[in-house]
Amino acid sequence: MKTIDDLNFSGKKALIRVDFNVPLDADFNITDDNRIQGATPTIKKILADGGAVVLMSHLGRPKEGPTDKYSLKHIVSHLSKVLGVEVQFANDCIGDEAREKAANLKPGEVLLLENLRFYKEEEKGDVAFAEKLSKLGEVYVNDAFGTAHRAHASTAIVAQFFPTAKYFGYLMAAELNNAEKVLNHPNRPFTAIMGGAKVSDKIQLIEALLDKVDNLIIGGGMAYTFVKARGGEIGKSLVEMDKLDLANELVKKAEEKGVNLVLPTDAQIADSFSNDAKTYDGPNDQIPADLQGLDIGNESSRHFAEIISASNTLLWNGPMGVFEFDTFARGTKAVADAIVAATERGAFSLIGGGDSAAAIAKFEMTEHVSYVSTGGGALLEYMEGKELPGVAAINA
Ligand SMILES: Nc1ncnc2c1ncn2[C@@H]1O[C@H](COP(=O)(O)OP(=O)(O)O)[C@@H](O)[C@H]1O
Ligand SMILES: O=C(OP(=O)(O)O)[C@H](O)COP(=O)(O)O
Fold this sequence. Notes:
Its main location: cytoplasm. By secondary structure, the chain is α/β, with parallel strands linked by helices. 36% of the residues lie in helices and 17% in strands.
């Protein structure tokens, strides 16, 4: 893997694709800067070498052209603080201003370009647009793991203009190494814990994992589709009626492959989708018609924790319940606690997926697991065995 360690950036201008698609509140404060922190070592190494840095990113999914809401100018002051450098900003990612500011950049200086997605050419992977971007640096670095599953102008196409001067940043390298370690060199037993809302989002990952894991724990909203498929009564719980056969097939496949597929047995049953709901723990296949399961029950939490405790590699994707409400965060917290305890006695734990990372952050456990991925969709696609365009473009 060609990383930025293979080059001394002294006197060089690096064009770095980062993923600064960070969550902002109504006052444009960054609510989670994991992705900015993640790209910092790459930027600092290049500056320390005596190089200059031009940063490019998208923010959100702007529909039509420049909008204040999606401007990257909102992150400049925070980024300056994190880097300890006064970051310059270009109000457009291409054009005269960007060109001049990039041309005048001195060693040790950093320029951030405006949101790439203000041009539809970015997502279309337009070659002419990529070429314009390529003029802003002499070396191309991709450190945008969170966007590596997109074949966009700045993540993939631009690399062709740097045939001998394209490198992976440290974040990209760390993400790929950790994902690879879990997938291909896990210490056993290897347990995957899947949760979240929908089976349909995770189906390919579940199938791919059946060839890799010893235990596959399924919790969260998606577990009810499995319970329903077995003929259980799940009340108003989340279900995908068109995925019942698929759920049964997955259970059968797991049996054939000798994978221990573990479903919850009880649920925290609620009378409404709210933090103030009245709740009780009961069997998740006997939920009254007007009620719904919004978390796994305590019996399931204990069972999941036992399996996690006995594991040496852990992959967690998706919460066990509606953890955004404290009332339904108990199961997710129990799983997080078990993962932290296993990590402390030497297991390797990889946390992926936007909501699992948010849950770990909410419980202030980010420092107590082995690795929290900055990728949601990108990590899932990598784990499913797909080639990521952002990775392929550097390796080409
Ligand atoms: N039992 C449940 N009923 C309804 N929603 C649930 C349930 N369990 C989890 N969820 C919701 O699933 C969402 C996360 O799903 P998903 O996006 O698939 O996870 P991730 O982003 O980690 O991949 C969370 O917002 C959570 O509230
Ligand atoms: O937030 C992102 O991905 P994620 O929602 O899968 O974590 C990336 O920045 C990619 O954004 P996109 O899904 O709009 O291409």
